[in-house]
Amino acid sequence: MIFNLRNATDEDLDLTYKIKKKCLQKYLEMLWGWNDKAQADFHHKHYQKEHFQIIERQNEPIGYLEIELYEDYIFLANLMILQQFQGQGIGRIIMENLIENNSTIVLEVLKVNHKAKRFYEIFGFTVFEVLEDNFRMKINF
Q1: How many domains does the chain have?
Q2: CB-hemisphere CA count at 13 Å for 78?
Q3: Contacts of 30 (CB under 8 A, 6+ apart)
Q4: Which entry of 25, 55, 56, 74 is 20 to 30 Å from 84 by CA?
Q5: Nearest to 112 by CA among 26, 46, 36
Q6: What is the DSSP string of the chain?
């Protein structure tokens, strides 16, 4: 699977929101319902382009990676890949690269997103904290 990652720009704000909506709306609806204005406002308020990389295939955006760097670990805030591009090895390659280059990775996954939780467990992530709506997972090397 050929794809590339590029650093996000200010112009990617709306793109990342559209991808987030397509990937997460059904799960967030299960938990709290979906309020498009509230979700868009939250995304716009918290968007920091330096944390985002856009996943592209044939120069078309198909997802994004959002990572926050800390002294002792990285926080994988989001790995979003549009549904029609899932199951093609893109997420696996991205995760293998992250694991290879970082000693500790922490993430949160929605309790209702069983597919995502199983995906991370394949790589050895384990739950270390249970929150109201999320599992906090990590992997150490």
Answers
A1: 1
A2: 23
A3: 112
A4: 74
A5: 26
A6: ---EEEE--GGGHHHHHHHHHHHHHHHHHHHT---HHHHHHHHHHH--GGGEEEEEETTEEEEEEEEEE-SS-EEEEEEEE-GGGTTSSHHHHHHHHHHHH-SEEEEEEETT-HHHHHHHHHTT-EEEEE-SSEEEEEEE-
Question: pTM of the entire structure?
Answer: 0.93
- Residues 45-102: pLDDT tens digits? 999 999 999 999 999 999 999 999 999 999 999 999 999 999 999 999 999 999 999 9
Residues 6+ apart with CB under 8 A from 95: 79, 120, 123
Considering only CA atoms, which of 99, 106, 107, 108 is closest in space to residue 141?
Answer: 99
Query: In which domain, by residue range, is 9 found?
Result: 4-140
Cα angle: 114, vertex 116, 117; to 5 degrees? 65
Q: In whole angstroms, what is the distance from residue 134 CA to residue 52 CA?
A: 21
